[in-house]
């Protein structure tokens, strides 16, 4: 989960400005964290997972909510 928190940090400027994140901006954040650009397919998958209201943009609330729910599910599975 460290990589996801790095991406959240990379998106911090958008969050601080109160703006949402577009697919291109998410790709740039991923590139800043991982080095190479990610495929447009991966960006589409990430938006499918994180864009809860399907408006084509991410806000921090959506991103954090999904991260927390996925983290909780993973931790719960490890307990069993």
TrEMBL record:
InterPro entries per the UniProt record, alphabetical: EF-hand-dom_pair, EF_hand_dom, MICU1/2/3
Domain named EF-hand: residues: 38-73
Entry's localization field: Mitochondrion inner membrane; Mitochondrion intermembrane space
Cellular component GO terms held in the UniProt record: mitochondrial intermembrane space; uniplex complex
Keywords associated with the record: Membrane, Metal-binding, Mitochondrion, Mitochondrion inner membrane, Repeat, Transit peptide
Pfam families, sorted: EF-hand_8 (PF13833)
One of the GO biological process terms: mitochondrial calcium ion homeostasis
Main location: mitochondrion
Keyword check for Metal-binding: yes
A GO MF term: calcium ion binding
Family recorded in the similarity comment: Belongs to the MICU1 family. MICU1 subfamily.
Protein name: EF-hand domain-containing protein
Organism: Amphimedon queenslandica (Sponge)
Taxonomic classification: Eukaryota, Metazoa, Porifera, Demospongiae, Heteroscleromorpha
């Amino acid at each position: 989960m460290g990589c996801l928190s790095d991406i959240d940090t990379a998106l911090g400027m958008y969050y601080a400005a109160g703006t949402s994140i577009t697919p291109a901006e998410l790709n740039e954040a991923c590139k800043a964290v991982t080095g190479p650009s990610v495929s447009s397919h991966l960006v589409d998958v990430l938006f499918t997972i994180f864009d809860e209201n399907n408006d084509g943009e991410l806000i921090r609330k959506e991103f954090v909510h999904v991260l927390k729910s996925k983290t909780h599910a993973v931790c719960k599975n490890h307990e069993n």
